[in-house]
Design brief:
By secondary structure, the chain is of the alpha/beta class. It contains 13 helices and 38 strands. The chain folds into three domains: about 160 residues, no CATH class; about 110 residues, no CATH class; about 450 residues, no CATH class.
Length: about 800
């Protein structure tokens, strides 16, 4: 072949190869550019998706936080969440068409509020319970600078379970062991162990669902006593089908006491088989139930305690859940002005002293002479300390009303003597009373008055074995109280007395908060809101209960592992003399004349509710009567008919009393008799009385029964004695409708349960769960709620690119 021809062919081939390589290179470059563009588009879409997801999670979290502090948030509060979208680089929350891309929607009721429906909770930790459920839809659209958009939607529901839908609820171990048959009704739950017993010959009836996060014990009582003999009565438990079956002694979740072997497979077969899930423990589906503030690091008792300084800034979620914050009216007393002025949200006017003259012109009580029974320097103030009363208005602003409230009167009637002095008729609170031996009823004489005092035998007596003829009282049971006239309180809220009450916040009704910390100091000078005397069980001194200086588990009321006994040291007024001098202790005995007249030496403070038979606070826009909740950091005594004027058919309101402890006093109660017969119940004879109110209260820690003590000593009294008594109720009816809730151990009224020589004789208990609490509109104001947010759906919505 001609070499020139071969060279031409080679040139052509080379050119073809170069063209092919060029084409391949161009295709490669195009491919790379296309992939880079696709990667950029995917990156933008991912950025938009995760931006939308981040917004959705924040909106969900913000709703959850709002719901934890307010189970019924307003439209304004919910819509305000839309203004708090996250700030993310390169992300704008803009909906298709240019509208807001960060939205939450929900149904409204007839009044324009978020609509909550009462129905069975379908999912989550409260599945199967009756709850207030509000559905929400959250829609979030995220857009990048390159106009990539992603729109996602989440459906969820807030679930609020009112604590008062339970007949009986306990955050700690729960014990049934009544003597007469007990048939309260309502659901039962405990976050601890459940002890089921009944005195022989009678029956315990549990007619609704029963759940225990711990174990169900049938072989022993909570104090370690066997149920084989005295407490061997039947325990009737309803099944899911409506039929009831007796739960035998060998049919608990353990074969014996706590710590023994699991009673399996018998227990599970009974729980989910015979009872169809209506009787459960932790192994068969029971779940722990906590209030929202517990998940925030607080304790259940904090709902009734004052806040810590600065808490409104450092822990606003906890602060908002205290009754101190939720109150329509709060009444605060302390030893010093600074104790009150430094509280969060406190108003500017200084607290008022209670040592000379009240705004209505009444002189505060002061000590007289030795011969009159006084054991401090003549002229020493007997009331003492400072008081501040504040009202929260409908704009959630606090206003000082101390002057206004005290101007309505501060004194109660005397309880004996030749001259009868009546109550200050318009007084909302009474800080003292006319003395029994008054020669006149003049308000301008400090010597005409004594403190408000009663003797609480349960708190004073170490054991229930003091001679009934003993006339002296133990100082630890001398309770100094402030009297709250519920009838006059209602008149003040209605505007019939005073001038500010009509402006008080009344969401779901009215709330009154009370805290009296006078004479309360630990060794460092700090207020604790605790008695501070934990040496009160003393199992080693079984017969006398004398302090032994040794900490027992049941004495550690605050769980700090320390034996605290600073509360046994008296706080002495000037010129103190025996027996009210530096040697005085809670177990010191004093005569009635000394106990009733003198200033308190120990932190024994309380609130007494009177004149509450008929509570009229007006109605809401739906015509439902406004309810009343009274929350107290101290023990509460309720004297006479309460929210039930002689029958349960009488007009009533949704009511709750929340306190360290609650004692019912009959219509026949007289403080004077409690000192004349401090250890003899027959001298304190009760009469038939009606009470209609939900209760949240503390109870004592159980301990093993010391030798020689009654079978039920060492228990917390059981559900049937959750309400305390101080009278002889033999052949008398105590009629009660409500809900019995225990969320904490007593911190102030720490006296052990005891009956029936000195403290009381039991009534005929007409106890029933108030089924009206199953209707949300009839719940007491600011009912505590167990709360949860359940996500029910999620989807990604396609949007134009």
């Amino acid at each position: 072949m001609n070499p020139r021809n071969e060279g031409g062919i080679a040139l052509i081939t080379t050119l073809l190869v170069l063209v092919l390589l060029g084409a391949l290179l161009e295709a490669f470059v195009l491919s790379v550019n296309s992939n880079q563009e696709q990667i950029g588009m995917d990156r933008a879409r991912n950025q938009a998706f995760y931006g939308a997801l981040a917004g959705l999670e924040k909106l969900t979290a913000d709703l959850g936080t709002l719901f934890e502090t307010d189970y019924a948030p307003s439209v304004t509060e919910i819509d305000g969440l839309e203004e708090a979208s996250p700030s993310l680089p390169g992300i704008a929350y803009v909906a298709p068409g240019g509208g807001p891309g960060y939205q939450i929607s929900y149904p409204l009721d007839a009044n324009g509020n978020p609509r909550a429906e009462t129905r069975t909770v379908p999912s989550g930790p409260y599945e199967g319970l009756l709850g207030l459920i509000t559905p929400y839809t959250m829609t979030v659209t995220a857009r990048t600078p390159g106009q990539s958009e992603v729109q996602i939607e989440r459906s969820l529901q807030t679930v609020a379970v009112p604590v008062f839908q339970f007949g009986v609820f306990s955050d700690t171990d729960l014990s049934f062991h009544a003597g007469p048959s007990f048939d309260f009704g309502g659901r039962v739950h405990t976050n601890g162990h459940l002890y089921l017993a009944q005195r022989g010959g009678n029956t315990l009836y549990l007619r609704d669902k029963v759940t225990a996060f711990g174990e169900v014990i049938r072989t022993h009582m909570i104090n370690g006593e066997s149920t084989a003999s005295t407490y061997n009565g039947p325990v009737s438990v309803a099944s899911s089908s409506g039929t009831s079956h007796n739960l035998g002694r060998n049919e608990g979740s353990l074969v014996g006491q706590v710590g023994s072997a699991e009673n399996e497979p018998l227990w599970t077969n009974l729980s989910v088989g015979r009872y169809g899930g209506s009787l459960r423990n932790w192994r068969t589906g029971a779940r722990r139930m906590d209030l929202p503030l517990v998940s925030m690091g607080a304790a259940p008792i904090d709902i009734i305690r004052r806040p810590l300084p600065g808490e409104d800034s450092t822990s606003p979620e906890v602060f908002a859940q205290r009754y101190f914050s939720m109150a329509s009216l709060r009444i605060l007393l302390s030893d010093t002005e600074s104790d009150l002025g430094g509280l969060p949200s406190a108003t500017a006017p200084a607290p008022q002293r209670m040592d000379t003259q009240a705004p209505d012109g009444t002189r505060y009580a002061s000590a007289g002479t030795w011969s009159e029974g006084f054991r401090s320097q003549a002229g020493t103030p007997l009331i003492g300390g400072f008081i501040k009363v504040e009202m929260q208005d409908r704009n959630r602003a606090w206003n000082d009303v101390t002057e206004e409230i005290l101007s309505l009167g501060i004194a109660g009637r005397n309880l004996g003597g030749y001259v009868s002095c009546g109550d200050h008729p318009n007084a909302v609170i009474r800080l003292q009373r006319f003395k029994d031996d008054a020669s006149s009823c003049k308000n301008d004489s400090a010597g005409n008055f004594w403190p408000n005092v009663l003797y609480d035998t349960r708190e004073g007596n170490p054991r229930d074995n003091v001679s009934t003829n003993e006339s002296a009282a133990f100082l630890g049971g001398v309770m100094h109280y402030v009297e709250l006239d519920v009838g006059n309180l209602a008149r003040w809220f209605r505007g019939e007395i005073g001038g500010s009450g009509t402006g008080a916040i009344d969401e779901t009704g009215y709330v009154v908060y009370f805290s009296d910390r006078r004479t309360n100091r630990d060794p460092s000078g700090r207020e604790t809101a605790e008695y501070g005397f934990e040496d009160f069980v003393n199992s080693g001194n079984a017969a006398t209960g004398s302090p032994d200086g040794r900490l027992e588990e049941a004495e550690d009321v605050n769980g700090n592992g320390l034996l605290e006994d600073y509360g046994r040291i008296p706080r002495l007024p000037p010129g103190s003399a025996a027996p009210l001098d530096g040697t005085a202790r809670p177990w010191t005995k004093v005569s009635a004349s000394i106990a009733r007249r003198n200033r308190p030496l120990f932190f024994r403070r309380a609130l007494k509710l009177v004149n509450g038979a008929s509570i009229n606070l007006g109605t809401n826009t739906e015509g439902i009567p406004h309810g009343l909740t009274v929350a107290s950091e101290n023990a509460v005594y309720i004297q006479g008919h309460y929210n039930a004027n002689g029958s349960f058919g009488a007009p009533h309101v949704a009511s709750a009393v929340i306190a360290d402890a609650v004692t019912f006093l009959s219509r026949n109660w007289n403080d004077r008799d409690s000192f004349l017969y401090p250890h003899k119940p027959s001298g304190r004879r009760a009469t038939d009385t009606f009470y209609r109110t939900a209760l949240i209260s503390g109870k004592g820690r159980a301990f093993d029964r010391p030798s020689g003590q009654p079978d039920d000593f060492g228990t917390d009294g059981g559900v049937h004695n959750f309400i305390r008594f101080l009278e002889d109720w033999t052949d008398r009816d105590l009629n009660y409708r409500g809900s019995l809730i225990s969320l904490f151990h007593n911190r102030q009224a720490v006296g052990t349960y005891k009956c029936c020589t000195n403290v009381y004789s039991p009534p005929t208990r007409g106890y029933k769960f108030d089924v009206e609490f199953l209707e949300p509109s009839l719940l007491p104001p600011r009912t505590p709620m167990f709360r949860d947010v359940n996500i029910t759906g999620f989807r990604r919505i396609k949007v134009p690119q």
